[in-house]
């Protein structure tokens, strides 16, 4: 299982990728999509460099306009639709350039790219833009299918190694991906750090914060005053305190 801090595209992507060449015909592409139960195929050159992607939606214009748009003059401004309706090969049908991602990118970045590009999958390419895999939306939700015990172990590891939290002071209980944090920390700012850090662990659905803290340094932020020590009776002005 990949380390919690290193969940990357390479950890969830599919490497046995079906691809086609630029001269692959419409019917062959349709056959591949149906036979393999996939919704798109990358188009690559002879060296494996990604040229574009042909998806189910790229095949639909030919179905929508079977008369090859001869009777649809209003489509003259929809050049992409016309190109695909008339297209017979992957070069005509593909969306290009393809939105791609590198194997070492985070799964969060992959999710942002998919949302921005409004696509359901991303070809994964190496430094030379050669196809090495594909990552889908389903792949990105895989961390949420992890066992609760694995998620809990990652939460504890993350808090201890990343934020130096004493494991004897904070306990994490995980049920269906929801992490309940109990225990005691020194300050409310530390409490916020613990909660926010827990949210970043892959597979965490939500965090229930039941932590307590000795010092409310949130109050200092709100008022501009703080007590120099837990037992100090003399408050200090943050703006005037010596640095």
Question: Could you walk me through the main structural features you see in this protein, from its secondary elements to its overall organization?
Answer:
- With 243 residues, this protein is of the alpha/beta class.
- It has two domains: 4-142, CBS-domain, CATH 3.10.580; 146-237, Histidine-containing Protein, Chain: A, CATH 3.30.1340.30.
- The chain contains ten helices and ten strands.
- The protein has helices at residues 9-12, 26-36, 56-64, 79-86, 90-93, 107-117, 137-140, 148-163, 188-199, 217-223; strands at 20-21, 40-44, 50-55, 121-125, 131-136, 170-175, 178-187, 206-215, 225-227, 235-237.
- A hairpin with a 5-residue loop joins strand 2 (40-44) and strand 3 (50-55).
- The longest helix is centred in the middle third of the chain and has 16 residues, at 148-163.
- It is elongated and about 70 Å long.
Keywords:
243 residues, three-stranded mixed beta sheet, 2 domains, elongated, single chain, CBS-domain, alpha/beta, Histidine-containing Protein, Chain: A, 10 strands
* Mean pLDDT over all positions: 85
How much strand content do the residues show?
Answer: 15-25%
Category from helices, strands and their pairing: alpha/beta
- List the total number of helices: 10
Q: Looking at this structure, what is the CATH superfamily of the largest domain?
A: CBS-domain
CATH architecture of the largest domain: Roll
Q: Which fold name corresponds to the CATH topology of the largest domain?
A: CBS-domain
Strands of the widest sheet, in order across it, are 1-2-3
Main sheet properties: 3 strands, mixed
Radius of gyration equals 26 Å
Number of domains: 2
């Amino acid at each position: 299982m990949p380390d919690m801090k290193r969940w990357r595209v390479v950890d969830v992507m599919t490497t046995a990728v079906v691809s086609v060449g630029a001269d692959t015909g419409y019917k062959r592409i349709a056959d591949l999509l149906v036979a393999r139960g996939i919704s798109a195929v990358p188009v690559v050159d002879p060296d494996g460099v990604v040229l574009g992607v042909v998806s189910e939606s790229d095949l639909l214009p030919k179905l929508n306009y079977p008369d090859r748009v001869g009777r649809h003059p209003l489509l003259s401004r929809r050049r992409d639709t016309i190109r695909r309706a008339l297209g017979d090969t992957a070069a005509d049908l593909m969306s290009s350039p393809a939105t791609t991602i590198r194997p070492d990118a985070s799964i969060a970045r992959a999710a942002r790219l998919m949302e921005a590009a409004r696509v359901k999958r991303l070809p994964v390419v190496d430094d030379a833009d050669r196809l090495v895999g594909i990552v889908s939306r389903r792949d990105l939700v895989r961390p949420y299918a992890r066992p609760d015990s694995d998620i809990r172990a990652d939460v504890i590891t993350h808090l201890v190694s990343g934020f130096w939290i004493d494991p004897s002071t904070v306990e994490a209980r995980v049920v269906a991906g929801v992490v309940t944090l109990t225990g005691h920390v020194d300050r409310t700012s530390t409490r916020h750090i613990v909660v926010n850090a827990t949210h970043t662990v892959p597979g965490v659905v939500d965090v229930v914060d039941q932590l307590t803290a000795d010092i409310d340094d949130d109050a200092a932020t709100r008022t501009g005053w703080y007590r120099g020590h837990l037992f100090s009776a003399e408050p200090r002005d943050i703006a005037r305190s010596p640095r």
